[in-house]
């Protein structure tokens, strides 16, 4: 189980770091900005999760592997852009952002629940769901604020709601099925909802501009 969780966390870290780096490149930030956005997107939600659960200092500062992976991912994405800036293609950017952000969202939502089950004596479904969603969306919110744009979760299709649905299902099934099965199911559900919302252009109601 430890190997499964480690691999899942690394995949999520790479996905979120990539989404942060892509956002920074789209905003024409320099190398430092690209690395910073990649790192905070990858570890930001986990830091918020640990603070909520009372795990201080947060794991990201005790074990820097995730930060190093995020730095490496950001650099690997930055170097090719020096010759061929693919991010000028809006369709390529949108597709890459969608895939990386959705994958990271799904993985970190279920990882948040897994950590909460391990650390918290209060394993209520509300706590598990709340921590899962915060872990999933936290890094992206920090990324968007630093990039000077409206957080992705408030404007792009069904985002936080997908995390919420996946988290609720995981919280209710956690004690009924093997942990790895519940985590994979949660990731799959979140990805499926995100794909459907993008395809059918689902959005929550909003106030029209005057």
| Low-pLDDT windows of residues | none
Number of helices: 8
Instruction: State the end-to-end distance.
Output: 53 Å
Overall geometric form: globular
SS-based structural class? mainly alpha
Helix-strand sequence: HHHHHHHH
Helix content: over 70%
Whole-number mean pLDDT: 88
Number of domains: 1
Radius of gyration: 17 Å
Number of strands: 0
Strand content: under 5%
Largest sheet: none
Describe this structure in words.
The chain is mainly alpha-helical and about 210 residues long. The protein has eight helices and no strands. The protein has helices at about 1-25, 30-55, 60, 65-80, 90-120, 125-145, 160-175, 180-200. The longest helix is centred in the middle third of the chain and has 30 residues, at about 90-120. About 45% of the residues are buried. The model has no long low-confidence stretch (mean pLDDT about 90).
């Amino acid at each position: 189980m430890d190997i499964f969780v480690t691999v899942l966390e690394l995949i999520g870290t790479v996905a979120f770091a990539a989404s942060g780096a892509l956002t920074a490149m789209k905003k024409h930030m320099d190398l430092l900005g690209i690395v910073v956005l990649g790192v905070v997107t990858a570890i930001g939600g986990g830091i918020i999760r640990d603070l909520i659960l009372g795990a201080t200092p947060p794991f990201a500062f005790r074990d820097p592997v995730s930060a190093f992976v995020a730095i490496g991912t950001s650099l690997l994405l930055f170097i090719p852009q020096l010759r061929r800036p693919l991010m000028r293609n809006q369709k390529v950017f949108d597709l890459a952002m969608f895939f990386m952000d959705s994958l990271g969202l799904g993985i970190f939502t279920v990882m948040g629940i897994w950590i909460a089950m391990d650390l918290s004596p209060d394993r209520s479904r509300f706590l598990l769901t709340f921590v899962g969603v915060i872990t999933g969306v936290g890094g992206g919110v920090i990324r968007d604020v630093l990039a000077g744009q409206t957080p992705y979760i408030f404007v792009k299709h069904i985002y936080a709601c997908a995390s919420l649905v996946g988290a609720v299902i995981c919280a209710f099934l956690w004690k009924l099925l093997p942990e790895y099965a519940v985590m994979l199911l949660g990731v799959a559900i979140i990805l499926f909802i995100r794909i459907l919302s993008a395809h059918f252009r689902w959005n929550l109601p909003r106030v029209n501009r005057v």
